[in-house]
Amino acid sequence: MSAVAQSPEPVRLRLRVTAAAEAAVRFGHPWVFSDSVLAANRPGVSGERAVIYDRKDKFLAIGLYDPDSPIRVRILHTGKPVTLDAAWWQARLAQALARRHGLFEANTTGYRLIHGESDGWPGLVLDRYDTTLVLKLYTAAWLPELANLQALLAAAIPADRLILRLSRNIQSAAGQGFQRHDGQVLAGAIPTGPVIFSENGVRFEADVLRGQKTGFFLDQRENRREVELRAGGRRVLNAFSFSGGFSVYAARGGAVSVTDLDISAHALESAGRNFALNRSHPAVAACRHGTVQADAFEWLAQGGEKFDLIVLDPPSLAKRAAEREGAIRAYERLNAQGISKLERNGILVAGSCSAHVPAADFFDAVRRAAAKSGRPFTELKTALHPADHPAGFKEAEYLKVIYLQMGA
């Protein structure tokens, strides 16, 4: 990849930032916000490299500049000056790939190869679904480098196709300035349907062109495996089920029945297809699979059937920091409703993907819900990010799951 996003600039973009931002960057934080920029030697354009100098006029960091984002600079390198030439980019990619080496057996062909800032690629993720790669961009700053980025990936990672996914906030800029669109096939043939991949030997479909995130929630792999180990002989409810990932694992683990609960008919249809993909496994074939299309919050608040294992993994309940306290209360109510539907010795698997709700606060909310039920309970375990989704700074710490077993 080139050292600059466009044709060489006669004057490098130089920034001065607040003392607080300078300290944060020096200690490894990957973002500089717009209100932290004190001065610039000229206006910057999206995608160019901005050099940040400290109060002593010494090089501090270099990063991607995005004039249209509250995150004005996404840091690429901190410390001594470097040249961001092709060799530098190749080494940066090799580091991310080496981090995944040996993590997965041959029966897992779906996982994350680049996890944004935590792998040194701010605002960018790359997922593998068998022989398909899905590149998702969260900042328009990567758009000028897309051709170079595509060549870099092609040289390092064998794949049949590369799909581009774009965050909603940059889709307009991508279309107007670069003729790029969400779901664009950058290399290889256009898929005729969902891409099929394996995870611990379980087969799933991924809608890589239009599905949520990059097509599947790869970050819950280890928790799906944990549910499989605990599902034997149990009746399982998978609330906010999406395409039934937890459900298929539970079935393979020997669940008597699995119910998928989701408001989306499209998601429930995908769950049915994922069950069909795995019917060759005797335990999956023997498991009764049902679906309920409803608002999970409303459905759980009603009486009715009880279950032996319930997975509660809702979408983020706090999109902004200001929503944190309300989200904590909502998590407590939601999990109280789930607990009320658990049979004696039933297991609650409670998850949160809200980055604005710290793990300690979420776990405490679930524990409070359990304590208020008046039932004895045992905390089985807690879990955070899997190894292919590292969390290298505070804002990246979004995933947390707690397992409780409820008594009588």
Explain how this protein is built:
With 408 residues, this protein is α/β, with parallel strands linked by helices. It folds into 3 domains: 13-78, PUA domain (Archaeosine Trna-guanine Transglycosylase, Chain: A, domain 4, Roll); 86-195, Transcription Regulator spoIIAA, CATH 3.30.750; 217-406, Rossmann fold (3-Layer(aba) Sandwich), CATH 3.40.50. The protein has helices spanning 19-26, 86-100, 146-156, 171-178, 221-230, 245-252, 265-277, 282-286, 296-300, 324-340, 359-372, and strands spanning 13-17, 31-33, 37-40, 49-53, 59-65, 71-78, 110-115, 124-129, 132-137, 161-166, 184-187, 195-199, 202-206, 235-239, 257-262, 288-293, 307-312, 342-352, 377-383, 400-406. Strands 16-15-14-17-18-20-19 form a 7-stranded mixed beta sheet, with helices on both faces. The chain is globular, with a radius of gyration of 23 Å. The relative contact order is 0.09. Residues 3-7 have low confidence and may be disordered.
List the defining traits of the structure above:
single chain, 408 residues, alpha/beta, Archaeosine Trna-guanine Transglycosylase, Chain: A, domain 4, Transcription Regulator spoIIAA, Rossmann fold, 3 domains, six-stranded mixed β-sheet, 29% strand, disordered N terminus
